[in-house]
Amino acid sequence: MLWQIKKILTCHFPDLWKGLSILNDPRKGIYYTTEEIVMSAIVLFLLKCDSRNDFNHKAEDKQFEQNYNRMFGLKLPHMDAVNDMFKQLETQALEELRCRLINSLIEKRVFHGLRFFDKLFYVAVDGTGAYNWGESPPEEIKKLAIKKEYDSGKVSYSNQIFEAVLICRNGMSIPLMSEWIANDDQEYDKQDCELNAFKRLSVKLKKFFPRLNICILADGLYSKVTMMDICAQYGWKFITVFKDGNLPSVWTEVESLLPLDACNNKEQQLGDSTHWIKYKYRWIKNIEYQKHSINWMECVRESEHRKTGEKTSNRFVFLTNIDINQSNIASVVTAGRARWFIEDHFNTQKNRGGALHHKFNRNNFNAIKNWHSVRQLACMMIEFVKYTVELRKILKDNSKMTLKELWQNIKSYMTMCCVDETMTEFELWSMFPRQVRLE
Description:
Shape: globular
Distance between the termini: 16 Å
Largest sheet: 10 strands, mixed
């Protein structure tokens, strides 16, 4: 696992060290460099530590510190020093660093073979809750947090975050960009929301990835003209979930056209070792909605167990501005259903080692943002590690071994063993041009 981490850092993120070194350092009386400060925070999340305190306990172990120095060639700071810098560091600095690293990967065509179809980069967008502050958050947090009032008179405050995630065909979810759903510190008539966050994030997305051929994947909340206008303005495609009751005028037109020749149909028979599976597709093209021409599509998936005969059925409905035909309808639906990967991305960050709900700072919103940016940098690196061919083979050859166990073993190894031999071997390996194969 340590080998895979070093390999990903060396082969896919060689510009990371330079990017960290040129961060504008706001501190005075510097003892640790910016590389040492930020890299230690990245490693905290790479090792899936639950808190700053958890990582500090490990850093107190001499063997762990020696291994850290050997692996990264950097001093290991106390997490309080990291937190102090994150209070002062401009929040856009780490965000811009992440975008530069991803742009470098795009230029190297790392993601090109992982696209679904039609040369599009599929970007799923959605919001999620990050921190719940209860009734009495710190004053600085209270001014920015989303306020919720209950019928009982109880009030609670929370921080929410809106994410854009690059979805890959092999299952990788690469966090592209984050936008906090937060009120400004002035009195407000209407609170911030996901749609406003999407507007702000789309501007940044176009700024940092101006030539990227993007298709936005979104849930039913975004089946609105606002999202369509933004996609038309930037030349993006979109696929959104279309729930019953959304855009009534569109549903009325769809229901009137379904019995007619305007509705296209296709069936597809597939199967696996345990089930017979039938896909039934229907789609209607060129529906006019507020100056936009959109396409409606439906997929009904029927599954029957080969032995028991048990049947299940699922229905998926989408709106899109991608041109649909007999040859690509299945691919477009598959891409639309891939929006689910962002939900799994949130679940990973909350329940599989990302410590999203843990407050790495409790009173400074600037530091909270920077801790989250570092979490997303580490998450991006972890995704690459998870999908290396070597690691997938280890899991395949050891059916009782899990990814969670492998990651837990890293921390044990770092405190109980010496990495000198492994790192020496890695340095010899990395002297020659290498490629990382992803599954």
